[in-house]
Write a structure and sequence with these properties.
- By secondary structure, the protein is mainly beta.
- Helix content is about 10%, strand content about 60%.
- It has one helix and eight strands.
- The chain has an eight-stranded antiparallel β-barrel.
- A hairpin with a 4-residue loop joins strand 2 and strand 3.
- It is elongated, with a radius of gyration of 15 Å.
- It starts with a helix and ends with a strand.
Length: about 150
């Protein structure tokens, strides 16, 4: 667990912020994985966003994350953008007993050129705090369509 947290911090420090979206831009889409469901993202400014989701994977899951984006970590394609993003958030799952956990998000996205579409892949360690402590791993691939303000 310490190694995952250390890798998360290193990736965050190395990611340089860049401007991709404007504050207020909103994206809505789907995510497949654990959990599978609907996702929304609201940009607060060019580097920060809030991600919300409602999904199911043998139980209902509700989550929310605060995300930081950086464009300069990976070589960029000739068209579109390929940012890395990191975030922290929380989630609630309705299993036998309701579970609450802290999420550490690491993801990569591809922004289609000339289209308001984001394709993304993320890996999310979840540190469950209730009803007992444990660590799990969620992952998903998804798509969001953006509406400009």
């Amino acid at each position: 667990m310490k190694k995952i947290l250390f890798a998360f911090v290193c990736l965050f420090v190395l990611s340089a912020p860049a401007h991709a979206q404007k504050g207020g831009d909103t994206g809505v889409g789907v995510i497949l994985g654990a959990p599978t469901g609907i996702t929304g993202k609201v940009w607060l400014d060019g580097t920060k966003a809030v991600d919300l989701g409602l999904g199911w994977h043998s139980e209902l899951t509700v989550y929310g994350d605060y995300l930081w984006h950086g464009w300069d970590v990976l070589p960029q394609p000739s068209q579109g953008k390929l940012p890395v993003y990191l975030g922290l958030g929380g989630q609630v799952r309705t299993y036998r007993d309701a579970e609450f956990g802290i999420r550490a998000v690491a993801g990569i996205a591809y922004w289609l050129p000339k289209n308001p579409v984001e394709l993304f892949l993320e890996i999310v360690p979840v540190f469950r705090l209730t009803p007992g402590t444990s660590v799990g791993l969620d992952a998903g691939i998804g798509l969001r369509y953006y509406f400009s303000k």
